[in-house]
Amino acid sequence: CSQYCRPEEARQAILYSYSYGFSGFSAVLNSTQATTLSETEEVISVFRSRMLQLHTTRSWDFMGLSLHSQMEQPSSQMHLKYGDDVIVGILDTGVWPESESFRDDPHLGPVPSSWRGTCVGGQQFDPATACNRKLIGARYYLAGFEAETGLLNTSGGAEYRSARDRVGHGTHTASTAVGAVSPNASYFGGLGRGAARGGAPRARLAVYKVCWFKDLTGRCNDADILAAFDDALHDGVHVISASLGSPPPLSPLFATSTEVGSFHAMQLGVSTVFSAGNDGPDAAMVQNVSPWGVTVAASTIDRRFPTVIALGNNASFVGEGFIVKDMKTPLVESTSVFADGTCSLDQLVNRTAASGKIVLCFSTMGMVSGEGAALAVYAGGGSGVIFADSSSRRSNQDNFLPTVHVNLRQGTHILNYIQSRSRQRPTVHVSASRTVVGSTPAPAIAYFSSRGPSSISPNILKPDVTAPGVNILAAWPPKSSPTMLPLDKRSTEWNFDTGTSMSCPHVTGIVAILRSVHPTWSPAAVKSALMTTAYVHDDTSDAMLAGGTQKAADAFDTGAGHVDPLPALDPGLVYDADARDHVRFLCGLGYTEAQVRQMVLPSPALDTSCAGGAIGDADLNYPAIVLPELRVVVTVKRTVTNVGLQRETVYHATVISPQGTHVEVWPPALAFSPRCARAEYYVTVTPAKLSRGRYDFGEIVWSDGYHRVRTPLVVRVTNLPDAGVGAQPTNQHRDTTEY
């Protein structure tokens, strides 16, 4: 900048100086200045800061992690902790410190001596009262946001220039991950009633506000995110949770703040958990795809909110909704209100027809959402909505205007009733919703959850795992309405929210528990424990369903499967990898040594050279094997470490080969002893003579009779120019080998 601006202008251009995690800065530069700076010998690289988006009670019990959970193995000697003295950093929209989830608790003991952070004051955020033994730190970052969008609007409580949460998202995610036990939590005094808590209720919370309320959503700037990572690692957090991201096309890993920050975290032994994104069910839309972070998809739990709809002809249907009181009103179809029958604001033509009535709306091939229909009907003076959509896409949520979700078959029956009563006014009685636990099948992948494969490194399975992310009840700022719509004046301290933003903190809580039980495990070992113990079946023992489709879920929907907290504490074997392994992975992606150094926290102990060290991304010691273009016989190596209590043990392999391949594992058995805790094995995958041209799925399972260490195996055979020629039938017998 010195060639083009005076020293004072240079100082004013600086937004952040990154001094803890790595040497660098963010600044406001024009294109000429940025180009000149990038060509300076001392500068490794320059990349543009982007704006990222947020990924928007019963769940812990559903996963088997009650407050009284114990390890199943009698000889375990492994005491289940709930995040004791683990510090979790949440990068999000801030926190509502007065929430019951973050109350001071003398039973927590003093703040851990390893904590080096602070509680920064600001607008309506007094450190003396906001922070305590639970909420031990809070910071906020908006230099990047304001450089991109202008001065923050704080008038009338539009936002807070502090760590206080205006959006609700950060309070919700923090409460889900580490919130204290709060009895009698519910949504508006009824739905979902029970004890709300985080997965690691004894963990400490540090909040880093990097996302700000603008245009009815949260916006997060790269420069602010990187500054927060820098501070969080200096402050001494043990786990970082970030429910945010940017959809494809994805930037290179070295030019993405979350990937750079999480790489630094991995180097320091800190696990980072990300949301996968909400752009499903299309393929390859998954975000946050680095192998050193944990990427979480979203799935359902076994709780439903059935809502009875009784028509004037005594026919009744059961939909789902958040209806807090009975409604009995006239009923009309959408064509009476909207020009083309589509429940959207631009088609509203007859307000009189909707006034005081419940309107039946259809999703119209997914072109209209339940929220959009509710707003359109509200604008027409309607009193409620019955919203019909495909059962695979149904997602119950609070739309401000009372809304009941039904499937297309039910919606068609209701439409037939309305049309048959041309001379009599159709009526409907909607009963208040109830809370029902134990509904099956569950879990199922949420239709919106972003799917794999990774668009940057398809040999790395993404997402990694799935966790509860639909209708999650957690803490909420009472000064923020449950929908965040300007016309919504309601107030609640607990709110339902849905998204991979909600599944991410579930895994964060589990990682905090793992950290408290196994403080010396690396982030790679922690991720391996989550992945190899995950399950892929629902509570009916059938394959999980993939919402938004009519098929069973596969590894690009679920990752390795649904997280299972208790088995993850004692996984038996883990796949470990260190910073050098990940440097070699980056070299294998074709990144230059200069680009690799941009990712890395400078350390004399870490070799960042690529000479002779690059590995293919399939050869990274990852807890999954993905071969997206198998043309010839391929052999990959994996290394496992025995972390079980039985140091002298033997594991045997069972293989299910993906269709169109034959898979062999050598050696077929792995022996461990107190002096030999690590073992290598090789997987040879042979393609069929004819190409299938699509992905197929199998697995490798190692077992010692107690532990079951499952590794997903994903293969796409492409050994013919025309992938469609000679494709084998999908129901062919699968090659299963036991050793």
Automatic annotation (TrEMBL):
Active site: D92 (charge relay system), H169 (charge relay system), S501 (charge relay system)
The UniProt record lists the keyword Signal: yes
Gene3D superfamilies referenced in this protein's UniProt entry, alphabetically: 2.60.40.2310, 3.50.30.30, Peptidase S8 propeptide/proteinase inhibitor I9 (3.30.70.80), Peptidase S8/S53 domain (3.40.50.200)
All copies of domain Peptidase S8/S53, residue ranges: 83-543
Domain Inhibitor I9: 8-55
Origin superkingdom: Eukaryota
Single Gene Ontology MF annotation: serine-type endopeptidase activity
Gene Ontology biological process: proteolysis
Domain Subtilisin-like protease fibronectin type-III residue range list: 619-715
Keyword set includes Hydrolase: yes
Keyword entries, A-Z: Hydrolase, Protease, Serine protease, Signal
Family to which the UniProt record says this protein belongs: Belongs to the peptidase S8 family.
Protein name: Subtilisin-like protease
Native source organism of the sequence: Aegilops tauschii subsp. strangulata
